[in-house]
Design goal:
- By secondary structure, the chain is an all-alpha fold.
- The chain folds into two domains: 30 residues; 198 residues, MetI-like fold (Orthogonal Bundle).
- Helix 5 packs parallel to helix 8 and helix 5 crosses helix 11.
- The protein starts with 9 loop residues before the first helix and ends with a helix.
Amino acid sequence: MTTTSSDSTPIERAGRETVAVEAMEDATKRAGGGRKDTDRKPHDNPWIVNGLRIGILAAFVAIWQVAVSMDWISGFFWGQPSQIMERYAEWIANGSLFVNIFVTITEAFWGLVIGVAAAIPLGVLIGSSQLLRKVTSPFIDAANATPRIALAPLFIIWFGLGPASRVALVVSIVFFIMLIATIAGVLAVDANHFRLGRLLGAKRGRLMTTIVLPSSRGYLTAGLRLSIPYALGAAVVGEMLTGTGGLGEVIVARSGALDTSGVLAAVLIMGLLGWLLYALADFFLAPERAHQFAHWRRSIAQRRAGTESASKAPA
């Protein structure tokens, strides 16, 4: 059930790279567990890394502000950091900033959750059956090649101008990303693992939960990281078309007023939201988090088994 490198897709390559990187990180942590902070290299020191990040950002903002102030570039066309901060102060004062952020992040979140929840079981089912793969492959390829943004007007007709149409647009994009990633992950599972599981008496459902999904975690992580910016983008595009709230409506309104700084202020918020979602995904999908969940699951199973044995014991 493994795939060859010549037939690999970008998601498959990203999944293999994620698995390799996580394995290297685990080995590095085990090998360097007793290393002192003074022995760490610069790229392992969070103070140095974060300091360089802040320095690069501060330098970029300073150069941008100076360039506009000295009339090297036009603030009307390129915006201005000081004006962006003024827009933030204005939106915070009237309360619209957090309302619009909440609308956009809610639509993106629910679209992401529904798309992932629908795609993973179907991907496991298709990936584990050669017949289903051959039958559904042309349909999946055709649907994935269709630009779902072009279907946004249809979603508005079907679901109205409210949040449902924007969530449906997010789902239509996230679903196929996660579906293809899940199928690729299932195909990458070593066939010997299946044989060993069957020899141990594991049924199909048990094989999927104990072998397929854990082995596909790298592919699922890569698909989820790829889905996050598309989910935010789809939610904003839907808001731009419906004009009923969210950061998309802000972008349309500021564009109509020829307010470049206002548009950039909304776009920067989108970037910040995407970064926060990336951080949450990395936190919950980190290898050590998976080990913790597995430990908790074993502990719960052991307590449950102990309770059942105690209840069955003769009084």
